[in-house]
Specification:
The protein has helices at residues 32-44, 66-83, 95-103, 120-127, 152-170, 189-197, 200-203, 217-223, 231-243, 254-267; strands spanning 11-17, 49-53, 87-91, 108-111, 131-134, 177-180, 210-211, 248-251. The protein is of the alpha/beta class. 51% of the residues are buried. Bound molecules: ligand 8Y4.
């Protein structure tokens, strides 16, 4: 389904978090049936991809053990893959999670560390599925402390070009790569605004651009709203991203985002 990453129209990627704060009783085990119902609602609302992730990469979050991440993600990938007609991306940086998820039906790897973890590049190359390479400065625990760039757009583009070269050297063709500036990952509000304003620059690299702005703190800073009141800001940001060339929009609120992406996509 995502064989070659080419998009005639922008596509909405719905976020399915399978961390202990979602679909669980607070413990280690999540309920795949509840996650599946959420995924089904996203597909009904027009999501073309469901992004399933078991590691929280929010600022300040700690690392997740590899077997715990597989225990969280695998039952949900299996349920969605067997029950729904939708492309699944797996949000992970870990080679064993990539292999297990693709074996269970995931069609894409979404790695916020751009395949920089040991073994990740070779694992992704061996699996032969498309990958999203995201830029992050630093590590989730500390990345928002004091992010610095010479020129955020040029610096992030240079990083992504280096990761594309590493992918090609490992056998992942450019036709299987999406690029993502990584909104919120080691960036100030000004950095995030500059990246959104100049997002079209990233399309000159010749690969589809993924934008993830949904509910993020930059939208809170620009609107003064808490995370649970950022729907309108998120939808507006998705529309702007499409106007500026984005092909994949990673969102929490699929139905509203699909409408916005359709309008922006019609005139982009
Ligand atoms: C409220 C809700 C506040 C969510 C912050 C957040 C991206 C991503 C994430 C992204 C790609 C997040 C896994 C962070 N963001 N993958 N993942 N691009 N490709 N924070 O922007 O959603 S998690």
């Amino acid at each position: 389904m995502l064989g070659a990453l080419e998009f005639e129209r922008p596509v909405v990627m719905g976020i399915l978090n399978v961390t202990p704060d979602s679909f669980s009783d607070g413990g280690r085990f999540i309920d795949p049936a509840r996650a599946l119902a959420e995924a089904a609602a996203m597909v009904e609302a027009g999501a073309g991809i469901v992004d399933i992730g078991g590691e929280s990469t929010r600022p300040g979050a700690g690392a997740v053990d590899e077997s715990a991440e597989i225990d969280r993600v695998l039952p949900v990938v299996e349920a969605v893959s067997s029950q729904l007609d939708v492309a699944i991306s797996v949000d992970t940086s870990k080679p064993d999670v990539m292999r297990a998820a693709v074996a269970a039906g995931a069609a894409m790897i979404n790695d916020v560390r751009a395949l920089r973890e040991p073994g990740a590049l070779d694992a992704a190359a061996g699996l032969g599925v498309p990958v999203c390479l995201m830029h992050m400065q630093g590590e989730p625990r500390t990345m928002q402390a004091d992010p610095q760039y010479e020129d955020v757009v040029l610096d992030v583009m240079a990083f992504l070009e280096e990761r594309v070269a590493a992918c090609e050297a490992a056998g992942i063709p450019r036709t299987s790569i999406a690029l993502d500036p990584g909104f919120g990952f080691g960036k100030t509000v000004a950095h995030n605004v500059a990246l959104l304003k100049n997002l079209r620059q990233f399309t000159t690299l010749g690969m589809p651009v993924l934008a993830g702005l949904s509910r993020k703190s930059t939208l809170g800073a620009l609107t003064g709203r808490p995370v649970d009141e950022r729907l309108a800001a998120s939808v507006a940001a998705a529309a702007v991203a499409v106007m500026n060339g984005a092909s994949i929009l990673r969102v929490h609120d699929v139905a509203a985002s699909v409408d916005a992406v359709r309008i922006a996509g019609a005139v982009a």
